[in-house]
Design a protein that fits this description.
This protein is of the alpha+beta class. It is built from 15 helices and 16 strands. The longest helix is centred in the first third of the chain and has 21 residues. The structure holds histidyl-adenosine monophosphate (HAM).
Length: about 425
Amino acid sequence: MITKPRGTEDVLPKDSKLWQYIEKTAREVCDLYGYKEIRTPVFEHTELFQRGVGDTTDVVQKEMYTFEDKGGRSITLKPEGTATLVRSYIENSLYANPQPTKLSYIIPCFRYEKPQSGRLREFHQFGIECFGASSSSTDAEVISLAWMFLKKLGLSGITLNINSIGCPVCKKEYNKKLRAYFEEYKGELCATCLERLEKNPMRIIDCKSEICSRIAKDAPKMVDHLCTECSEHFEETKARLSGMGIDFEVNPDIVRGLDYYTKTVFEFVSDCLGAQSTVCGGGRYSGLVEELGGKPADGIGFAAGIERLILVLKAQKGEEVSFDDGPDVFVATMGDEADKTAQKLIFELRTKGIHAQQDLCGRSLKAQMKYADKLAARYSVVIGDDEIANNKGNLKNMGTGEVKEVSLTAEAICEILDAEVR
Ligand code: HAM
């Protein structure tokens, strides 16, 4: 038997309503904030991520799904959304519209990581990016959108961690201090971090190896070395978040795993996910639009991992949480004539927006009623020869057992359902 590739998942019908619930909540919150959806290709030229995400990152060094297409071009399946959105922002001249440009996306992402709970090779992100605004009010707005999204999903036990990793000016000075610190431990660092020491010492702070992360624990913190502008921006962002009643913790160890960040970075962490606890991460990136060939424009955004959100929802609301509503009414039948009458009635009920079902597998009446129970139908009605002759049936409330006589018309059934179900 051919099985799915390692690190991928089928979303089964029992979970699809949960996915739709998350996507619907994301779209509702984006509407409130004026973020418009953008859809982009699943694959891009490899160079976009090498230049955009950064060639000292784990994502680019170890995790990209890269292949040569039949025309000899190097192609990569999107490992994340930001670089793609920057490319699209520039390529489609979105900067020519009144700024900022507020964009949202729900995308599949691909990273060749070691699969474990909450870490997949194909996963999905809901993300937003805001281009063309450098104010701290933008940072606060973007973070508040993520916060509202997670709140509306009904998640608890989520902590917001924020940090500032400065701008190229203060980062340069800080990197000197960091390099001097890590030089002392040159003999102990892993091979990848030895390379990073020269090119990008901040990446060492993000290394997953036990020894490197132990050494990095006492390294100088960027937040203590910010220039005046970055420091003011960070203080203002924090004050605005507090003003909105959004709780956060400053965590000087957050550097994020991608190279494009400047100033504010943040992560929302769940207390019920174990090692892969970050459900949402993001930050500001001031140089990326220019790096990818556009006129200078600031960007800031985040992405939330949908599979991780589902793990949290299941952990908090029970494995069987499904948001799957059963039919409003199940029409059971006895005989071929009744079956035809039922199909017409169900079609009319559906036309009126009522979720109606009938048996399609030739079950006995008893088995049909069992099936209606399994589907969690709220009402049922049985149609046989007598019901057809009188054009009347008994509509049964499956919860209370209460029965009401009803004409076998969509209007009459709707009248009862409107009063009692909706
Ligand atoms: P990221 O932190 O690499 O950031 O990913 C964002 C979120 O995607 C993570 O917090 C996590 O929930 C989910 N995620 C990442 N890798 C995996 C995986 N292997 N399996 C399952 N879920 C995963 C970015 O991608 C940035 N582009 C976010 C951003 C947008 N920054 C600014 N704008």
